[in-house]
Design brief:
200 residues, mainly alpha, Serine Threonine Protein Phosphatase 5, Tetratricopeptide repeat
């Protein structure tokens, strides 16, 4: 066993083994525990998720857990591989496209990341993080008009998003549209003053 595993994590894994937990659940839970340990054991968690994937090659959730863990561990290449398979298994899974987009972005593959962010938003129009992230890539590329379009799409989906209004204000300012930039800043300021939504 990995020498970095915490004592608590090792104890939990021993209990699971004695309980006859399935290989998939055993390794997935082991990965989660190692990932959330203090300090986290990301290499160990990665290996556990990989074993869980081997035990159930069609499990999209575990592949995305593997991809996210690899991103935390700065292993974008493995994250891309895992998320690619997840998105091919479930082409309409917005989270699979979102994670794949983040992995591509971590590899500085901007065009591929933009495509996946777009696919994620097409699958789930409430996923405004996809629009905001795509907009940021366009800004980095110097395409402020396309960035503005992405931020407007985010606002259309979630009118009360302070982040979207602030991002649009910034890019409009770059485009020289100061009147609308100021309008977006005022809206963001107004939204910040609203009481938080009650937890459902």
């Amino acid at each position: 066993m990995n020498r970095y595993r915490s004592k608590a994590a090792l104890t939990a894994l021993s209990i699971m083994a004695l309980a006859g937990c399935s290989a998939v659940n055993f390794h997935e839970d082991a990965g989660k525990r190692l990932e959330s340990a203090n300090p986290p054991d990301l290499p160990g968690a990665t290996q556990e998720y990989k074993q869980a994937v081997e035990a159930d090659k069609t499990n999209t959730t575990i592949r995305l857990e593997l991809a996210n863990c690899c991103l935390k561990n700065n292993d974008a290449k493995t994250a891309v591989e895992a998320a690619k398979v997840a998105s091919s298994l479930e082409p309409r899974n917005a989270q699979a496209h979102l994670v794949l987009a983040k992995a591509f972005a971590a590899e500085s593959a901007q065009n591929e990341a933009l495509q996946e962010y777009n696919d994620a938003f097409m699958c789930d129009s409430t996923l405004i993080d996809a629009c905001l992230s795509a907009g940021k890539i366009f800004e980095d590329k110097g395409d402020n008009k396309s960035a503005a379009d992405k931020y407007r799409a985010a606002i259309k989906s979630e009118p009360n998003s302070v982040a979207a209004h602030e991002a649009l204000a910034q890019v409009l300012s770059k485009l020289g549209d100061m009147a609308n930039a100021e309008s977006e800043i005022k809206e963001a300021t107004r939204l910040k003053k609203l009481p938080p939504k009650p937890q459902s």
